[in-house]
Amino acid sequence: MADKQGNSPESSGQKVSITIGNQQDVAFEAISAMNVEAQVIEYRHGNSPVFYPIKMPGLGRVGNIALRNAVLNDSSGFREWHAAYESGMIKPIKVVISVFDEDGLAILVWTLHNAWPTKITGADLEGNKEAVEVELLEFACESITV
């Protein structure tokens, strides 16, 4: 489980860190599995003696990524996303998901390119908290690099 205080992975024992745009170390409890696939193109030459088509990789497809129980320390980013959604002017951002080993060294880094939030489900609001808690934060993206 992530440290909801936003502490760094090295100091809190957190194994995964997420950077959303300019917000460093977004705390969360769970993340959905990455889903990247390639469409299959089937092609057969008109004069091919083989009855079966050739299969080739086609366009890639990336599924949405969902963060559950996220804590956004800088609520201005949350307001900007909501305002952009209402105006129809959503600005894509870069989301970086890093997995760390026991020594705090990054062993795997996923980068979501041109990501934007597709769904934001808020948690109960409490007046004594500075951070914005979100039950579900779902991102669509154009591509993922590892």
CATH topology: Pnp Oxidase, Chain A
Instruction: Report the oligomer.
Output: single chain
CATH hierarchy class name? Mainly Beta
Q: Output the number of helix runs.
A: 2
CATH architecture: Roll
Global shape: elongated
The residue ranges in which pLDDT falls below 50 over 5 or more consecutive positions are: 1-12
Helix proportion range? 10-25%
What's the CATH superfamily, by name? Answer: Hcp1-like
Give a brief outline of the structure.
The chain is mainly β and about 150 residues long.
Give a description of the structure.
The chain is built from two helices and nine strands; from the N terminus they run H-E-E-E-E-E-H-E-E-E-E. The chain is mainly β. The chain has one domain: Pnp Oxidase, Chain A (Roll). Strands 1, 2, 5, 6, 7, 8 and 9 form a seven-stranded antiparallel β-sheet that branches. A hairpin with a 5-residue loop joins strand 6 (93-100) and strand 7 (106-122). The chain starts with 8 loop residues before the first helix and ends with a strand.
